[in-house]
Amino acid sequence: MITKITKKQQEEVDKLLDDALDFYLKKFNKKEIEEAVEEIYKNIGEKKPIIIYGQSPMSCILMCSMFGQLSDQLDGQLGGQLSNQLDSQLYSQLYSQISGQLYSQFSNQLDGQLRGQLGDQLYGQLDSQLRGQLEKIKSNYYISIFWYYWLKLYQIGKICGVKYDEEKYNLFKKFNNNISFFIPYKNVIFISVKPINVSFNTNKVLHNDKKAAIEYSDGYGVYALNGIRFPKEMAEKLFKKEMSFEEILRIVDVDQRNQALRFVGDKERDKFLEHTKAVVVEERKKLSPKGKIVYYRLYEIPKGDIFANNVKVMWYTCPSTGMSNFSGVPYEMKTVAEAMAWKGSNDFSQITAEDWENCQPLVDES
Questions:
Q1: What are phi and psi of 89, to 5 degrees?
Q2: What's the pTM?
Q3: Contact (CB, 8 A) for 38 and 184
Q4: 192/201 Cα distance (integer angstroms)
Q5: DSSP characters for 16-27?
Q6: Do 173 and 179 meet the contact criterion of CB atoms below 8 Å apart?
Q7: Are strands 214-215 and 197-198 parallel, antiparallel or unpaired?
Q8: CA 73 → CA 50, 64, 182, distances in Å?
Q9: Span 90-136, pLDDT tens digits
């Protein structure tokens, strides 16, 4: 049982973790892909399937949907078998040879690096964007981020001295280093090439304020600002500075609206408030536990060329990041406390203005 590692081994592990986000930047090796697919199908007693490449996950889904209408070859969904043949055996070999403490240490490190960043970000963005199309193929698809997580964990185990079935380990490595999205069936497998570009911000979440954050060669992409996904049309309008403040305020999704407002900037917001003859109803300040000032301001905007009726809006700073937030509130709100209490309430939990008064930023107010 491996219970500790050397300084040199730890340095190798650290380097592997640093390079983990390079998954989508690695070269797409068609020769290795075809070898891996043939070997995996052979392992589960199936013949080598026809491999159909798509330039993006979307093109794979569309081709798969069309193929299903023209042929009876989509007669068996093999995703579960493909994973069980390799992943479960390698996991057993890893877990039986390394201490629970080391396993937890490396697993937690990878959780933050891969599952938290590549997994939640890339899988979440792609899955939410493709979901409508995926229903056509009964969701028999795999975005390989989570298998890549296990590959990295198995590689760390190997650095530490874990002994695997080398044939299965190399096959798992070959497959998951090259394939990011696939739809497997009995006689055919659809495989997407990797994106030509993936962009992150300094916090390592998906972000690009000029083009798609995940970009494929056929034009398909996922647009995101600081990890928040945007429809293509909305994102491109923001990038071109063509979205009016009125349009931004009408964005229903609060995360999208906040990112759009930050993208436009405080100066544009102030110009808008001046143009609409907005009046400050009330200003408030609170202190975070570290003494950082959090600002709140309730505005009334009279009807005019922007709004058909008088409206009220809240501007406030985020207690953790200091970024500005701006959103509409019901017109009957008369104080900052009433407006913030309304924003903090939902169908399951209601808070009063008095409750909000007693909240401290970053303690019981996020």
A1: -70, -40
A2: 0.67
A3: no
A4: 25
A5: HHHTGGGGGGS-
A6: no
A7: antiparallel
A8: 10, 11, 16
A9: 888 888 898 888 888 878 777 665 555 555 555 555 666 666 555 55
